[in-house]
Design a protein that fits this description.
This protein is of the alpha/beta class. Helices cover 43% and strands 11% of the residues. Helix 6 runs parallel beside helix 9 and helix 7 packs across helix 8. Its EC number is 2.4.1.117.
Length: 294
């Protein structure tokens, strides 16, 4: 009986090793060597208030504003206006931001949330760059908390630092409102993030993050993932470059209209997490110490 159990154990280990080898091989051969940085010709321009085409700036140019806000939007006709009203109303009260208000970058194809934010980052003018979700789930004035968190990280190495909004302090409340199945998925995802990619950040997925210009250009120019798990790779890259990261509690409210399909979206993100780790581990993806790219 013991001999049979040992044989089964050895067989199980062998099968697991074979499966991991196969998955690693698939992850390696399907990986693109460099992040997608291609811009279609139509994506290099925006329409100004007069309806005329103007060339978009580059994040590698010198900043001309103190803050840029990047809001990815796809089928957000209902939620975006409310969020924009709150954001613009707040920013106009802060004289130092002024602003020539809104620029719309229309993408030729759907690049996913991460891809859309990346294109916005690459066209930003601010010394600091905030990414914020179109649903307005995070109260926009909480940017002040992120600014303080960013300043508390000084001195910034190579002018790089990141402040991440976090909903981790609301975890107990959210568990009470979720089904057991969704709670299990949440804990499973958090474990995979910690085990495979990012240590020390409890909430990697909050869509409210503030970057110095240098941190944004360094991390997003190395980003491969363009769908829902892009935040995890982004923070993995930041930790590789030893960019200081502050996790800041923010006010957050559940807003109807989420595009995440609970089971399949979490399954996709789980696959992405595994592939992020394996592709960097096998050398299919590499991070270079120089951050500036054409």
């Amino acid at each position: 009986m013991i001999a049979l159990l040992l044989q089964l154990a050895v067989l199980g280990v062998a099968l697991a090793a074979a499966a991991l080898t196969l998955i690693s091989f698939v992850a390696f051969i399907t990986a693109t060597k460099m992040p997608h940085l291609h811009q279609h010709e139509e994506e290099k321009f925006f329409l100004n208030a007069k309806g005329q085409k103007e060339t978009l700036p580059s994040v590698w140019d010198s900043p001309t504003k103190q803050l840029s806000v990047v809001v990815p939007s796809y089928n957000e006709e209902k939620r975006l206006p409310v969020m924009m009203d709150e954001a613009l109303g707040y920013l106009e009260k802060r004289q130092k931001y002024g602003s020539d208000k809104v620029r719309v970058i229309t993408l030729v194809k759907n690049r996913g949330k991460g891809g859309a934010i990346k294109m916005g980052i690459f066209s930003s003018r601010g010394e600091k760059i905030l990414m914020a979700d179109a649903d307005g789930a995070t109260q926009f004035p909480d940017i002040e908390k992120l600014e303080k968190g960013l300043n508390d990280l000084q001195p910034w190495p190579e002018q790089m630092a990141i402040a991440c909004g976090s909903r981790a302090h609301l975890e107990k409340e959210s568990i009470a409102q979720r089904s057991y199945f969704r709670t299990l998925l949440m804990y499973g995802f958090h474990f995979l993030v910690w085990f495979l990619c990012v240590k020390g950040i409890r909430d990697t997925q909050c869509g409210f993050k503030l970057f110095t210009r240098e941190a944004a250009s360094r991390t997003f120019s190395s980003l491969h993932i363009e769908r829902w798990a892009f935040d995890v790779e982004l923070l993995y890259i930041a930790q590789f470059f030893k960019i200081p990261i502050a996790e800041i509690a923010v006010n957050w409210t559940e807003i109807e209209g989420s595009k995440l399909v609970p089971f399949w979206s979490w399954l996709q993100m789980g696959k992405d997490l595994l592939f992020i780790r394996l592709r960097y581990l096998t050398g299919a993806w590499r991070l270079e110490q120089t951050g500036k790219m054409n």
